[in-house]
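Tutorial handout. Part one gives the primary structure; part two gives the three-dimensional structure as tokens.
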Amino acid sequence: MSLQPLTAAGVTAKTTELYALSNSLLAAQADAVQSDFATWIKGNFTLSTPQSDFLTGMNATALKYYGAQCSVAFRSRLTISLSTPTPVGSHKFVGSVNTLEVSTDSAGTLQTTGSLTFKIEYLV
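Part two.
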């Protein structure tokens, strides 16, 4: 798979590329992103030095959570987006907002709907 820039357009291009994979190959990507979110991001996106440094310094619990969210979204080919405003301020924050709904039907089959958005915000 090709490297994409870590931008809104790059995330859209990457999900388009992922969702064109077979179910088994997509499941392997879902496993990989859940196992190690930071490594998966570095292997699928071109990062600037500040982006790479920020990712390397992110909290481990947040990284595990983001990886789990992406894994759920990948498996059901749900929309994933990135919101990146123009930097204003020196304090950068990354968060996720989702409408993911995960359930099982009467046969125990996984049912997922919704979307996932990663938001980068800056505070003065």
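Part three, for discussion. Residues 4-123 form one domain. Residues 24 and 64 are 22 Å apart (CA to CA).
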